[in-house]
Amino acid sequence: MDSTDIEALAAAVQWISEGRRVMLATVVHTWGSAPRPPGAMMAIRDDGHVKGSVSGGCIEDDLIRKVQQGACPGPLPETLVYGLTADEAHRFGLPCGGTLQLVIEPATPASGLAELLAALRQGRLMQRRLDLLDGTVTLAPADHARALQYDERRLITTHGPQFRLIIIGAAQVSRYVANIALSLGYQVIVCDPREEYLDEWDIAGVQLSREMPDDLIVRLRPDPHCAVLTLTHDPKLDDMALLEALKSPAMYVGALGSRRNNERRRERLALFDLAPAQIGKLRGPVGLYLGSRTPPEIAVSIMAEITAVRNGVEILQKYP
């Protein structure tokens, strides 16, 4: 689930608890070019405060105006379509040919948003079903992610947990990687049992751990919403983490180092209880080839590769 949508849910839950009138908007269908995909969410408070986004353009302004004027939401969910004509697409800042369909619903304690948010923070995958005829909401655990389902009677959405990035090693490159990952919406955990490395870390939002790397990986149980990155340059620490991470269903496992060092690393890993297919999941040298030299540039290349893997983009060439 996109971190922007989690922020929208969290804001809606907070505003509802304060007794404010709240509208929740969900993108349910797009035609042509559209800035945000189906499932994108936005919460609007009665005074016009906004969290999340459905278009990144003037649609937000129009919805804010409707909420402030009391025109929406009504007592029941409703559907709005933007961009049916070229003039309307231009007016609302949509790309040429873009059309956006939204479901607008009043967010109340009965909307199940607090329960949904709590489940997501526990790392659970959830399905939310909104009855468009009477506004009732039901929540249920989901076994796998499903595409958004929408018709005249119901809206069914699957909500997954926030993506995590586990970084082994608290050196300089790790700082830049952590900052970029936070801006991309990851929950970031940095692990380094070496006392001198974590003492100066002061990046807000990063969880710090002095556990041994293998113990941390076992405890956190990486899943398909998790990436693991080893950056210590110390085989004793990196290999410990990799031995556990490569057994997991983590979406990404990578190790910093030269091509030669990573070949040696694979040889060491083969001495343990890892299958060839598990070792084959290791990405190293880590990152895309950008000619990177400085720690910030290396961090950009690493997060570019993780982003490509997360989005299912095939990486044709990494290093010459």
Description:
By secondary structure, the protein is of the alpha/beta class. The chain has eleven helices and 15 strands. Helix content is 33%, strand content 24%. Strands 12-11-10-13-14-15 form a six-stranded parallel sheet, sandwiched between helices. Strands 3-2-1-5-4 form a five-stranded antiparallel sheet. A four-stranded antiparallel sheet has the order 7-6-9-8, with helices on one face. The protein folds into two domains: 157 residues, no CATH class; 147 residues, NAD(P)-binding Rossmann-like Domain (Rossmann fold).
Features:
320 residues, alpha/beta, Rossmann fold, five-stranded antiparallel beta sheet, 15 strands, elongated, XdhC_Rossmann_dom, XdhC_CoxI, MoCofactor_Util/Proc
> In whole angstroms, how far apart are the ends?
34 Å
Strand order of the largest sheet: 12-11-10-13-14-15
| Total number of distinct structural domains | 2
What is the residue-mean pLDDT, rounded to a whole number? 89
Q: Which range does the strand content fall in?
A: 15-25%
Task: Estimate the helix proportion, in percent.
Answer: 25-40%
Q: How many alpha or pi helices?
A: 11
Coarse structural class: alpha/beta
Tell me how many strands there are.
Answer: 15
- Low-confidence stretches are none
Order of helices and strands: HEEEHEHEHEEEEEHEHEHEHEHHEH
Question: Regarding quaternary structure, how should these chains be classified?
Answer: single chain
Q: Identify the overall geometry.
A: elongated
Largest sheet geometry? 6 strands, parallel
Rg from alpha-carbon coordinates: 22 Å
Protein name: XdhC family protein
InterPro entries: MoCofactor_Util/Proc (IPR052698), XdhC_CoxI (IPR003777), XdhC_Rossmann_dom (IPR027051)
Domain XdhC Rossmann: 165-306
Organism: Parapusillimonas granuli
